[in-house]
Amino acid sequence: MYVAGPSSLTSIKSCLDEGMEPTCFESSDDIGGLWRFKEHPDPGRVNIYQSVIINSSKEMMSYSDFPPPAHLPNNMHHPQLLSYLRLYAQTFDLFNVRQRPDFPVSGQEIQVFDAVMVCTGHFTQPHLPLNDFPGIEEFEGRYFHSWEYLSAEGLQGKRVVVVGIGNSGGGIAVDASRVAEQVYLSTRKGAWVVSRVGAGGLPGDLVGTSRLDRLVQKLFPSWITMMMEKKLNRTFDHRLYGLQPKHRFFAQIPVVNDDLLGRIISGRVLVKPNIREIKGSSVVWMLWCLPLATTMTFLPSGLLTNGGHCLCLYRHVFPPGLARPSLAVVGFICNLGAINPLAEMQARWATQVFKGLLTLPSQEAMLQAVKRDTSTLQNRFACLERHPLQVDHIPYMDSMAEELGVRPNLLGLLLREPGVGLRVLLGPCTPYQYRLRGPGQWDGARQAILTQWERVAQPFRTRMPPQPESRTRASSSLILTLSVTVLLLTTFYTRHSLSSLPTGLLYKIYSLPEIIWELKPRLKPTQQYMCTGGSCTDH
Ligand SMILES: Cc1cc2nc3c(=O)[nH]c(=O)nc-3n(C[C@H](O)[C@H](O)[C@H](O)COP(=O)(O)OP(=O)(O)OC[C@H]3O[C@@H](n4cnc5c(N)ncnc54)[C@H](O)[C@@H]3O)c2cc1C
């Protein structure tokens, strides 16, 4: 039976698409990987906690030929994400249960394969740097790593220290603070905190993440960073809240959390600096929310470089040192957005390499490329040793897509199908863009792009809001045309002239696509909702 995590599922599908015969080895007893919450975690396996909600929105996290069902919320609770993964596996028949004809004799014996894809997830080992906390050996309270945290059960009335303010640290601090007497959130470096909810109440990762946004960011990196930080500090002053980090906004994955500020302003969570020393048990529980280390003990140790931080993988997939490209690593990657589309792109690329349809460069060229990428990333991202797998979403996807022949042809689209082309340029860079052409082209891709905002709106349609008495309806197409023109002009402005414009005005110009979405006709009213005898139905 094929059972697997999100990266394995898409790898299995890519193999099937290419006519290969995949066999999946999974150490647990069901699909979902990290997203299958376990009351009793498998020993030695990472688990999530009960209240985890995904940071990425469903449209950004979906597989490129499988848009999420419209009714699912935009930022799903983990069981809903698991249901999406199950649906994907069922739809593409990835659950195909088949025994090899020679099963009784082959059993657990050595089997030979033409190629191997490693999709074991990169959150594999807890990192507990106890030596950094003098006095820990005398600590009388309980301490453990966040991967053992399931829920706030047992924390009632306790004083809890959460060490580290990554996404897990922020989430667990909020979760624990609902029952604990007091939660202290200890952070050495601080963090930028962003909401899942963006402009106009839309999912934050769908707004301001288009190809055009990316182009503007590339042309004016410091200006965009400054604007972003100003915007965040207008929502809440990171310095006032004790969260101000040293690093700039795009240098590290931000903390995505909608509740942390509320817990801090109410005093339920107190932000504290790094712990210097632990004396006695003045604190009752300590939870280490530090990055998990990546291990692949079953692979040759030569794959690991830089003291175990950075994997020496060409394009984060192929080890350069092998005689034949028959081993690919999928899903060992992270970015400011969702991982699934990256893993899917890696799997599509790797299977083409396995089949010999794409050729890798020489070993020396691959090693040079790994070196170059590592040094680019070192300049680009802070704390690379903590997040050695970090990449820029659109450039990474585009570079793989280019080789695969599936990168969207923007100019052609704008000329032939401006409706789709404008969405690809100005809209969120959703995964369907990589199914418009080339190998693995999917006929539903256009429709998926045209209807993506419909799927975003659908889960909000739970109540018919009263219509305002009179409303000026701006013409969306006129605004769209105007904003494209202004944005293109802005983009080609020189750095000098831009800096001479007032920041507020620049921000307004730059935010035009967001404003368009806000001016879009309001969500359609819901139908009547009837509740009789304990059950509710749409009418
Ligand atoms: C708290 C938290 C929140 C997150 N939120 C997001 C988010 O919002 N968006 C996002 O994109 N990502 C998020 N992530 C990252 C998340 O890891 C990925 O989305 C996704 O789970 C990666 O899938 P995967 O298949 O690569 O790894 P996993 O989901 O970890 O699956 C790996 C699978 O491999 C199996 N396995 C491991 N070792 C072996 C072995 N030796 N033999 C056989 N089987 C093995 C495991 O049992 C598991 O089923 C989050 C992570 C955490 C911890």
TrEMBL record:
<keyword id="KW-0256">Endoplasmic reticulum</keyword>
<dbReference type="InterPro" id="IPR050346">
    <property type="entry name" value="FMO-like"/>
</dbReference>
<dbReference type="InterPro" id="IPR020946">
    <property type="entry name" value="Flavin_mOase-like"/>
</dbReference>
<keyword id="KW-1133">Transmembrane helix</keyword>
<keyword id="KW-0503">Monooxygenase</keyword>
<keyword id="KW-0812">Transmembrane</keyword>
<keyword id="KW-0472">Membrane</keyword>
<protein>
    <recommendedName>
        <fullName>Flavin-containing monooxygenase</fullName>
        <ecNumber>1.-.-.-</ecNumber>
    </recommendedName>
</protein>
<comment type="similarity">
    <text>Belongs to the FMO family.</text>
</comment>
<keyword id="KW-0560">Oxidoreductase</keyword>
<dbReference type="GO" id="GO:0004499">
    <property type="term" value="F:N,N-dimethylaniline monooxygenase activity"/>
</dbReference>
<dbReference type="GO" id="GO:0050660">
    <property type="term" value="F:flavin adenine dinucleotide binding"/>
</dbReference>
<dbReference type="GO" id="GO:0034899">
    <property type="term" value="F:trimethylamine monooxygenase activity"/>
</dbReference>
<keyword id="KW-0274">FAD</keyword>
<keyword id="KW-0285">Flavoprotein</keyword>
<dbReference type="GO" id="GO:0050661">
    <property type="term" value="F:NADP binding"/>
</dbReference>
<dbReference type="InterPro" id="IPR000960">
    <property type="entry name" value="Flavin_mOase"/>
</dbReference>
<dbReference type="Pfam" id="PF00743">
    <property type="entry name" value="FMO-like"/>
</dbReference>
<dbReference type="GO" id="GO:0005789">
    <property type="term" value="C:endoplasmic reticulum membrane"/>
</dbReference>
<dbReference type="InterPro" id="IPR036188">
    <property type="entry name" value="FAD/NAD-bd_sf"/>
</dbReference>
<keyword id="KW-0521">NADP</keyword>
<comment type="function">
    <text>Broad spectrum monooxygenase that catalyzes the oxygenation of a wide variety of nitrogen- and sulfur-containing compounds including xenobiotics. Catalyzes the S-oxygenation of hypotaurine to produce taurine, an organic osmolyte involved in cell volume regulation as well as a variety of cytoprotective and developmental processes.</text>
</comment>
